Amino acid sequence: MSKTIFEKVISREIKADIVYEDNWCIAFHDINPQAPVHVLLVTKKVIPKLSEASEEDAELLGHLMLKVADVTHKLNIKDNFRVVINNGPMACQTVYHLHIHILSGRMFHWPPG
Ligand code: AMP
């Protein structure tokens, strides 16, 4: 299996503006930001999409949610942000390696479209 683009960021084969990293996940600025702040929080384990996560990933998924709080605190956006996980083609997922979009710095609308 070929590496995902995010595995190449993790291994430093591709440069990224990294804002956080630990043994389980990495966060870096999106290359094509959809808001003034657009960071991706990516699992180091390659789970292609959220719907393919299993019971054994429970601790990892919990960790990821808590790191959203840490990263938003670090970026000074802790009171106003949106998180998005695109799952599958109809949700416009393009990179099949689990990641959370963290967006902030502008007004968001609902429904999201
Ligand atoms: P998704 O469409 O939910 O799979 O999101 C994938 C995201 O990865 C998109 O917002 C892309 O702009 C972003 N992306 C793709 N390649 C890179 C890269 N090398 N560095 C940072 N972000 C990237």
Features:
113 residues; alpha+beta; HIT family, subunit A; five-stranded antiparallel sheet; globular; binds adenosine monophosphate
Can you put this structure into words, describing what you see?
With about 110 residues, the protein is an alpha+beta fold. It has a single domain, classed as HIT family, subunit A (2-Layer Sandwich). About 20% of the residues lie in helices and about 20% in strands. It has two helices and five strands, in the order H-E-E-E-H-E-E. Strands 1-2-3-5-4 form a five-stranded antiparallel beta sheet, with helices on one face. A hairpin with a 7-residue loop joins strand 2 and strand 3. The longest helix is centred in the middle third of the chain and has 17 residues. The protein is globular, with a radius of gyration of 14 Å. It starts with a helix and ends in a 9-residue tail after the last strand. The model has no long low-confidence stretch (mean pLDDT about 95). The site of adenosine monophosphate has 14 residues, from helix 1.
